[in-house]
Design goal:
Its EC number is 6.1.1.20. The protein has 12 helices and 18 strands. It is an alpha+beta fold. The chain folds into 2 domains: 284 residues, BirA Bifunctional Protein, domain 2 (2-Layer Sandwich), CATH 3.30.930; 86 residues, Alpha-Beta Plaits (2-Layer Sandwich). The strands form 4 sheets. Strands 4-8-9-14-13-12-11-10 form an 8-stranded mixed sheet. A 4-stranded antiparallel sheet has the order 16-17-15-18, covered by helices on one side. The structure holds 3,4-dihydroxyphenylalanine.
Length: 435
């Protein structure tokens, strides 16, 4: 991954965050802390500037409102925040047993400050640290960073909530303790109109209970996990769907995560499609041992906030969460779920760029350059043509870029200028030939 001069030079002017990035410097200075740069460094200043927005800490921002709603629904859990997104690669990956060749580790998928320090890609990076403090039942909210495509539901920063619940497994009473809680969850669920489709299998050979755990305990933990999350999802989606008239449908499927076993995903039926909400599972004893909690057993989950907020508040484009326009921000009020009223839909300016590629390139690098050149003025980028010339064997690609501002009318001249700068920068970055 290369860093362009233009990327480095652009430091958000309004930003209070002190970010100092330059090729002349051997290190990046963030809030007084210096991070040495190396061949892994790929986090642009525009992304680092977003680390200070802290949308989840704003009580009347949709992300903050949703966070409170979840915290109120899980009110017997300790509520935590992890302010700095800068973590070690060990915390983000190794401590959770991600394999060495996991794609999430690649420079094309994640933002690195250097080889050993990165912007967290998920809130699970904090699991062991929270457990080390001896907290048994907790939920933690934070912003997470991933290099990704550009469309209405993908943005390089989003928010997650991590939750966990563990019990002391050294006493015989653990089963009784879980069963008592199950009883309360059953009672609460009896008042809901939710249909649960569960296609998972207990102790599935492909997603088995852990050998070091008594199967009765694993079974109870799984039950507690599923009931807790069924109730949570119901408490959220009852604000979006008339659940008295139509039951909410949720579905459990088998999954794989390196630090849980068994592992699952939960989906909800929304407008005729299954929407993936979260990943979860029974904590691997090895991971708990690493956190000094080997004598405990329990579950963990990780939930994305934007997708749910888009449904609850009727927000059509993920870029809107980052808008500082009063016409967006003034629509929301702490503690209230209200439908977003679009204040404008300015016309798109569609521009194509076609080029011959001379060496392998990753689409996420292209998306990042487009984002860096045009900030939030690009609504989507789509590959519309991809062919290999039969004679020359040269590879041609064509991308369609949809420039559209959420806040104002973007003139064709402005879009042309943005497009010219996109072309200029991708030419430099990939050494390609524009067609
Ligand atoms: N961190 C996972 C992700 O971002 C989600 C997740 C899966 C969190 C399983 C968990 C878990 O705590 O147990 O996709």
């Amino acid at each position: 991954m290369m860093i362009l001069r233009s990327q480095i030079a652009r430091i958000s002017k309004s930003s209070k965050l002190s970010v100092n990035l330059s090729l002349r410097y051997q290190s990046t200075l963030i809030n007084g802390q210096s991070y040495s740069r190396d061949e892994f460094t790929n986090a642009p200043s525009s992304i680092l500037a977003l680390t200070e927005r802290q949308l989840h800490q704003q009580p009347s921002h949709p992300i903050g409102i949703l966070r409170s709603l979840i915290e109120n629904s899980l009110n017997n859990y300790q509520h935590l925040t992890a302010p700095s997104p800068i973590v070690s690669t060990y915390k983000n990956f190794d401590e959770l047993e991600f394999p060495e060749d996991h794609p999430g580790r690649s420079l094309s998928d994640s933002y690195y400050l250097n080889k050993t320090t990165m912007l967290r890609t998920h809130t699970s990076a904090h699991e062991c640290d929270v457990f080390k403090k001896g907290t048994d039942k907790w939920i933690l909210t934070a912003d997470v960073y991933r290099r990704d495509e550009i469309d209405s539901s993908h943005y390089p920063v989003f928010h997650q909530m991590e939750g966990a619940c563990v019990w002391d497994d050294t006493t015989k009473n653990v089963e009784k303790a879980i069963e008592e809680e199950l009883h309360l969850l059953e009672k609460a669920l009896a008042h809901t109109n939710v249909i649960t489709e569960d296609v998972t299998v207990n102790n599935n050979p492909n997603n088995p209970y852990q050998l070091s755990q008594r199967p009765e305990v694993s079974g109870l933990i799984v039950k507690h996990l599923k009931m807790t999350l069924n109730l949570l999802v119901y408490n959220l989606f009852k604000h979006a769907q008339n659940v008295d008239a139509e039951p909410l449908k949720v579905r459990w499927i088998e999954a794989y995560f390196p630090w849980t076993g068994p592992s699952y995903e939960l989906e909800v039926l929304w407008e005729g499609k299954w929407l993936e909400l979260l990943g979860c599972g029974v904590m691997q004893q090895r991971t708990l041992e690493r956190a000094g909690m080997g004598h405990k057993s329990g579950w963990a989950f990780g939930l994305g906030l934007e997708r749910i907020a888009m449904v609850l508040f009727g927000i059509p484009d993920i870029r809107l969460f980052w808008s500082t326009d009063a016409r967006f921000l003034s629509q929301f009020e702490s503690g209230k779920i209200s439908k977003f009223v679009p204040y404008s839909k300015y016309p798109p300016c569609i521009k194509d760029v076609s080029f011959w590629v001379n060496k392998p390139f990753h689409e996420n690098d292209l998306y990042e350059i487009i984002r860096e050149c045009s900030q939030d003025l690009v609504e989507s980028v789509e590959c519309i043509d991809n062919f290999v010339h039969p004679k020359s064997q040269r590879h041609s690609l064509c991308y369609r870029i949809n420039y559209r501002s959420m806040d104002k009318n973007l003139t064709n001249e402005e879009a042309n200028d943005l497009h010219a700068s996109v072309i200029e920068n991708i030419k430099k970055a990939f050494n390609i030939e524009i067609r």
